[in-house]
Amino acid sequence: MAELWELPAGELARLVGAREVSSREVVQAHLSRIAEANPHVNAITVVLDEQALEAADAADRALRDGAAPGPLCGVPMTVKENVDVAGSATTLGIVALRDAVAPRDAPHVAQLRAAGAIPIGRTNLPEFGMRWHTDNALRGATRNPWSAGHTPGGSSGGDAVAVATGQAPLGIGNDGAGSLRWPAQCCGVAALKPSLGRVAHGGQASPFGFQLLAVHGPIARRVADLRLAFDHMCGHAPGDPWYAPAPLRGPAPAAPLGVAAVTGLDADPQVTAAVRQAAKLLADAGYQVAESLPPALDRAAEIYTQIMSSYGRVHEEQPPVETIASEGFVRFWTAFEEPWTRAAGRAAFDPMMERAAIARAWDDWTASTPLVLAPICTLPAFPVGADLDPGWVAGWPAALRMSVVANLLGLPSVAVPTGQADGLPQGVQIIGPRFREDLCLDAAAVIEAGTPRLTPIDPR
């Protein structure tokens, strides 16, 4: 029989709601798993043991008193350290922010709590969430449970590792340039980057670039758990001008639903093989799959970089990076500054105007193939330290083009594992029309059903 920490979020909620197990038993099982696994991977930075057990006891009392169970009743979740959790520091991985305790939950964290979820730990990220490997001076490095010599991804690397190793069935992170999907690929879990406007930002003020390009979303071991969490983190919150109360499910599309499979990106052969494997699973399930290339992909990546460069960094508001970040982050940014600048390409007269033109071209391209099956990154998980090498990191912006185009256009995307190669997990993403997360999740569930389950795993 499976241990409680091995079970998916939906099954845990069912068991607690039916009073077959107590919420305290579920939380305690995960606390024990954290004590066992986390010393090997450093994914969870702060264990919220007392608060989690108090919340579990309160949930159990409410059920005994006849209260209806919430849809996430008793489900432990981790929360990235750049998302507010009441009474816990929102550090952004910065030493100077170690005591920046949030007075209240971020809106989506509060909504998940209201549905019954229980924060059990805070999770690691790179400084400012601005590196694709998880390490910082405050908390140290997070290790990939598949291979300590390879990156766990970033910036939501702590949540991906925590979920992959069974320390929680659900992690809450964010994605401004693949920061949910890339760690999911590296660690063999699933992730959902919602549409722009789906999940209210609220809480902290953030630069325009992050308001436009970054979104909050869940990480889980099962696609069904992504849907469960997503359904309960999309409520309205004041202060977010981008929020859009769109229906969670749209009209049924005409069958067969078209899928554009992107295989011509000069990707690593293992990555291309993962896309073709997923394409076959979708075709076998009745989707109409055709290989294709997106329009203006290079220009989309350039416009993304221009917007994030001009409106995503607060140069005048913060001290020099070398005075507040780790030596590793400074080395990374020194190596990446030239490729990042070069990735911006020709300066646009108006980046938002070009963004609109690219969006129209994308809509035309997907008129008959609403879903896009693509690599998350054209490379598998890289060796630790590779992103400090100026020669290696020069190719990184091009490797992430299919992820940042979804951020630029505000489109939903689901990352889903496809198996493993050379001892490392592989995965793909399904990108869909704006506010059609349901279609992305449906297709990802088909891929998941045809793929051997990879997690939870013991750190190796």
Q: What is the topology?
A:
Elements (H helix, E strand, L loop, with lengths): L8 H9 L5 H19 L2 E4 L1 H16 L11 E5 L26 H8 L3 E6 L33 H8 L5 E6 L5 H7 L2 E4 L14 H6 L1 E6 L2 H8 L27 E4 L7 H16 L3 E4 L5 H15 L15 H17 L7 H15 L5 E4 L15 H4 L2 H4 L1 H9 L3 E9 L2 E8 L5 H13 L11
Parallel strand pairs: 2-3, 2-4, 7-8, 7-9
Antiparallel strand pairs: 1-3, 4-6, 5-6, 5-10, 9-11, 10-11
Helix pairs in contact: 2-3, 5-6, 8-16, 10-12, 10-15
What does this structure look like?
This protein has 460 residues and is α/β, with parallel strands linked by helices. The chain has a single domain (4-449), classed as Amidase signature (AS) enzymes (Alpha-Beta Complex), CATH 3.90.1300.10. It has helices at 9-17, 23-41, 49-64, 107-114, 157-164, 181-187, 208-213, 223-230, 269-284, 297-311, 327-343, 351-365, 390-393, 396-399, 401-409, 437-449; strands at 44-47, 76-80, 118-123, 170-175, 190-193, 215-220, 258-261, 288-291, 371-374, 413-421, 424-431. The chain has an eleven-stranded mixed sheet, sandwiched between helices. Helix 5 packs parallel to helix 6 and helix 10 crosses helix 15 (401-409).
